[in-house]
């Protein structure tokens, strides 16, 4: 089947970007001659990650609207206006046969204009509690791919397709040996290993927690791979030692997940989809600083099915040690892993591309 150009818009954070890249990867597998163009937000992570993955990208001058009072909000209407105009030119020049949005600042104006031009469109919602942009867009898009059940409370029921969140193929088909993965990070292969994930930039409260608990983890004979984020690496790199590996960012996620016996993580939707597929006992510490508090809602969807433990930031001082000791119980681990894997949707990218193909 010969196809024309497809435009994908998603970014601002890895949670929106990685699903977009996974969809693009599956499109390239399915349609050998497909041409994919990304549209992102200037100055955001996608402007470097997308070209590194081998795709072209155009940036819009757009940021999110700040929920607290901010002088930046005075510029929002101006940025939105110019982004709508630029989106119109992008769509008229490139003439895509379909536009796909995975969330982020840029997807709003692009999908909105695509709908005005009657270009087929699909949006993908990663979270159990959708953001305002996708709620607005849902009125006019053709299909909405979701990762959680019950989103007909927010979206038109007839447009919803339950697909799960697409994940990177290297994680989907991961067959890395755990012992070799630990050696890769220069750790003892037979020692229990905790992996700490705080996102590409890092999570201040999680980093403070791990720094405070290093001696406690040593008393439990646990070694650590600690992804502290680029913003905090200089502060914490001096704590690195034989049993604590501190890294700003980790590209080899298949190696990282394979090395983990337990995981401490934020509760971004893309990360949760990956954790479901790799099936490792996890404590989720949702970020309180995200739109609609969606990480807390994501985390509780897992906790309510006994698939993960959740400790909020305000309760870390009183609940963390007890929760982590629960994670060490072998019977509890089996229970968590079994329930966690029920959330796994390793073929999500394929299912989404099936629906894209129908619209094409």
Give the tags.
360 residues; alpha/beta; Rossmann fold; 6-stranded parallel β-sheet; 13 strands; 16% strand; globular
Description:
This protein has 360 residues and is α/β, with parallel strands linked by helices. The protein has 2 domains: 5-165 and 346-359, Rossmann fold, CATH 3.40.50; 173-341, Glycogen Phosphorylase B (Rossmann fold, 3-Layer(aba) Sandwich). Helices cover 42% and strands 16% of the residues. It contains 15 helices and 13 strands. The chain has helices spanning 14-30, 46-52, 76-94, 107-116, 132-137, 169-172, 178-184, 204-219, 233-236, 253-259, 269-278, 294-303, 316-327, 330-341, 348-359, and strands at 5-10, 35-41, 56-60, 98-103, 121-125, 143-146, 160-162, 193-197, 223-227, 244-247, 262-265, 282-284, 309-310. Strands 3-2-1-4-5-6-7 form a 7-stranded parallel β-sheet, with helices on both faces. It has a 6-stranded parallel β-sheet with strand order 10-9-8-11-12-13, with helices on both faces. The longest helix is centred in the N-terminal third of the chain and has 19 residues, at 76-94. The protein is globular, with a radius of gyration of 21 Å. It starts with a strand and ends with a helix. The model has no long low-confidence stretch (mean pLDDT 91).
Brief description of this entry?
42% of the residues lie in helices and 16% in strands.
Domain module count: 2
Biggest pleated-sheet summary: 7 strands, parallel
Share of residues in strands: 15-25%
Average predicted confidence as pLDDT? 91
Structural class: alpha/beta
Number of strand segments: 13
CATH class of the largest domain: Alpha Beta
Oligomerization state = single chain
From the 3D coordinates, which CATH architecture of the largest domain would you assign? 3-Layer(aba) Sandwich
| Series of H and E elements | EHEHEHEHEHEEHHEHEHEHEHEHEHHH
Helix content: 40-55%
Which runs of at least 5 residues are low in confidence (pLDDT < 50)? none
By DSSP (H or I, 4+ residues per run), the number of helices equals: 15
- Annotated CATH topology of the largest domain: Rossmann fold
